[in-house]
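Review form for a predicted model. The reviewer records the input and the model, then writes brief findings.
Reviewer: anonymous (R2)
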Amino acid sequence: MNVVFLSPHFPPTLYLFCLRLRELGATVLGVADAAYDSLRPDLRDALTEYYRVPDLHDYDALVRALGHFTARHGRIDRIDSLNEYWLETEARLRTDFNIPGLNLQTIGRVKRKSAMKRVFERAGVPTARGRVARTTPAARDFIAEVGYPVIAKPDVGVGAARTYRIENDDDLAAFLAGRARVDYILEEELTGQLLSFDGLVDRGGRIVFSSSLVYGLPVLDAVRGADMWYWIDREIAPDLAEIGERLVRAFDVRERPFHFEFFRLPDGGLTALEVNMRQPGGLTVDMWDWANEIDFYRAWAEVVVKGTTVVETDRPYYCLWAGRKVGRAYRLDHDAVLERYGPSMVHHERVDDVFAPAIGNYGYILRGPDLAPLADAAEAIQALAATD
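Model under review:
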C-alpha cells in the first residue's frame, strides 16, 4: 500500500503515525517544505521516499510530487495529513488522483460550519441557531432574531482563531468594519459545559475507538488569555455516545479519526457545535494512550492498512492537561510543580507557539483513577502568585 503523508514532521507527534504505517508494511511517502536533514531520524527511517516542495501551499508542486511518486511506486492508495489545515488540499489531491477518502464533492459539509448545521438538522441533532451574514442588514436581521450576545467565527476555520463575541451594536459595527474578507457565520451564544465525542472509524464505518474530552473552560476564553485545562473522561455519557454515533453515520465518516464538539446545556441537553475530521489537537492522542493504555497511532495505521482494528480498554485513568502561559507569575515554579505532582505526572513539555494561544506555552499532563486530585493539581499549577 502506497500512503502519501503531507507534512509528516509537523505537528511534531505526527511522525508516529508514519512509523506505525511503515511497521505494518506500508510504503510511506512524505511531502513537506522542510529540509530532509531537518527531519527527526526515526521519521526519515519510516519514509520510503521524501519529496521536498518549496511551499505546501503550492498546489502545482504537490501535483508534481504525487506524479513523481506514482511514476516510481505505482498508484497512490491513500493521502492524509491528519491536520485540519490541509484537509481541503488533501480533498483536491484525492479528486485529481482518484484516491479514496474525502474529496471535493464531500469536503464542504465537514469544513463549512453552515453546511455542518444542515447535516445536524437532518440528523435530528440540536444545534445553535446560526447564519452566514455577508452584509450589515443580514447581520442585524439575525441579531434581531436571537438577541445579543452572538459569536462570529469564520465559516471555514480552525479552532477559535479569528472568533469574536459581539455584545452590542458598537461591537457589531467594529466587527463588520474590521473582519477578514471571508464568510463569517453568526451564532447565538450558548452557555454550558464544552465537551467532545472523539474516536476512530474503520473502513466500514464502524467506531473502533471512542473517547470524550471535557474542557475546564471554553477555547475562546483560553485564546483571550485564560489558562486552558481539560481532561479525558473515564466514562462517556450514553446520550453523548448516541448522538456521536448518529453523527458518524450522518457524515458518513470512514477510515479516519474524528472530533465532534458539543455543549452540555444547563438543562442537561446536548447541542452540537461542529465536527472535525481529524483527531483533537495538542497532545490529545498521547493522552488517549496514557488514559487507556493503548497505541492509537498503531490503531489508526491498522485501519488504513487492514481496514479495521481492535482497541481493547476499560478506560482505567483520567488524563488531564494543565497549560500555563508565558509572561505570568505563577505561585508554583516549574521545579515545585514537578516535585509536588511528580507521582501523577506522565509528561510535560514546551508547546509550539502556533498552538500556545489555545492550550498554553507549557503543559503538564497528569494521570490517575480519580478526577478530583487531578483537578486540584490543575488549579494549583495555574494559580497565580500573589501581587502587592
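Findings: The chain has three domains: 2-106, 129-188, 193-382.
Further findings: The chain is about 35% helix and 25% strand.
Recommendation: see findings above.
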